[in-house]
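Please fill in the sequence for the structure shown.

STRUCTURE ENCODING:
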């Protein structure tokens, strides 16, 4: 039985625990190019990505943990150790932001953020189709101004939307049980 493109969509799941090898440069280009196919009202192309690899991942962890604590957030020593163990194996983080482009007042910010989210979904699907694991995280200092500023995504011009980690899955994960779409569907609206 051959695998169809829909099979890839049905079997995709978030894979937080990844390790080396990360994507090759060719695979990374394919993953990022997949983002360019996202729906995009007005062709604004609001998505912005920044690659974080190697020792920079550890520096991001330092910055994120310090910024979270400085803003009154709680990160216990156990949680910090868990974050550091996870990130020590991650070969690639892709920071994700939505560019707001204040010059354009026709298309609302929400539509730009939806477009950026669709771009990330395309990246997650592409990584899965290439046999890699990927996970979109909004932890790790996503809502701390110090982190977003350090990454070059100032709050005036961008909405920072987290990180995508990409690599080889640490474990083979069982298929995810998915709900039946009927549970989320209302029959046709007729206007009557």
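FILLED IN BY: designer on duty
SEQUENCE:
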């Amino acid at each position: 039985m051959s695998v169809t493109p829909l099979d890839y969509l049905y079997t995709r799941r978030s894979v937080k625990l990844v390790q080396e090898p990360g994507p090759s440069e060719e695979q990374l280009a394919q993953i990022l190019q997949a983002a360019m196919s996202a729906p995009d009202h007005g062709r604004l192309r609001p998505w912005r990505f920044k690659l974080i690899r190697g020792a920079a991942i550890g520096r991001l962890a330092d910055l994120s943990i310090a910024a979270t604590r400085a803003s009154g957030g709680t990160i216990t020593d156990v949680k910090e150790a868990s974050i550091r163990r996870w990130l020590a194996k991650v070969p690639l983080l892709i920071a994700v932001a939505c560019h707001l482009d204040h010059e354009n007042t026709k298309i609302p910010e929400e539509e730009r953020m939806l477009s950026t989210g669709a771009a990330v979904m395309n990246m997650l699907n592409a990584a899965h189709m290439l046999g890699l694991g990927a996970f979109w995280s909004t932890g790790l200092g996503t809502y701390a101004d110090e982190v977003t500023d350090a990454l070059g995504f100032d709050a005036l011009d961008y909405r920072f939307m987290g990180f995508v980690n990409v690599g080889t899955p640490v474990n083979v994960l069982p298929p995810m049980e998915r709900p039946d779409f009927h549970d989320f569907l209302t029959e046709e609206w007729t206007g009557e």
